[in-house]
């Protein structure tokens, strides 16, 4: 199916209409945040599910039940998705945990008034592209990626769900109220998960001793998360997400783009990146 059939244009960016109905988008627009809410914000395929495992474990002091009782989409729900309206989020005790793929400028009015805590996870866009290319082929609510070169152009032009990676990252890097936002990358978590856990815990004002940190880091290893039925999307029916084509928790590494992009594609990617990111001062750790 085409973009027109599968996507809604909301605040100028494409979103899958199946998940993001007018009712859910209206619910989000009118949502009332609390100052101690924690929001995981990502461009899709940047490490959302990983952070949805990490944050509940940190907040619960490493209690496995925090990630074994509810599926990730109910545990740390996406505010823009239909099911958020049915989860009684208003009744949840503080601190509540949410997820969103919205760019900064798309956030609803209450966000700017209340200034809840944000953990913004970034990932090397070449790996985001690679992960997306596989994922788009599995999900019936997304436009099939088609040939890789065609999808590459769409990705770099922002004609994919949640718009341009460049706009997304720049919007959250340039966001106001920086003290309420922790910027962290997928690659930092790959390089040193325990150090990343310490940074996240400090931001969330939770103290973690060495034993609990070790326990959380172990649970959040790719191979262990893959076994968690509440995080590996195995509960999603095959007609919506066909994991026989590509698993949701697919490879879990940094640099897989080297196995995916041709030399010419990587060069084209770099030229677009250089141009779009020329004003960005943030020092990313990834190997571009
Ligand atoms: P790959 O497709 O490259 O394997 P999101 O949750 O934002 O949709 O991102 C999904 C990507 O994060 C997938 O990347 C997935 O494998 C990876 N991921 C999820 N959990 C992970 C973990 N514990 N360690 C490393 N990567 C993880």
Automatic annotation (TrEMBL):
InterPro entries: P-loop_NTPase, Sulfotransferase_dom. It comes from the Eukaryota. Gene3D superfamilies: P-loop containing nucleotide triphosphate hydrolases. Keywords: Catecholamine metabolism, Cytoplasm, Transferase. It is found in: Cytoplasm. GO terms for biological process: catecholamine metabolic process; xenobiotic metabolic process. Pfam families: Sulfotransfer_1. Residues 35-280 form the Sulfotransferase domain. GO terms for cellular component: cytoplasm. Its EC number is 2.8.2.-. One of its GO terms (molecular function) is sulfotransferase activity. Belongs to the sulfotransferase 1 family. This is Sulfotransferase. The lineage of its organism: Eukaryota, Metazoa, Chordata, Craniata, Vertebrata.
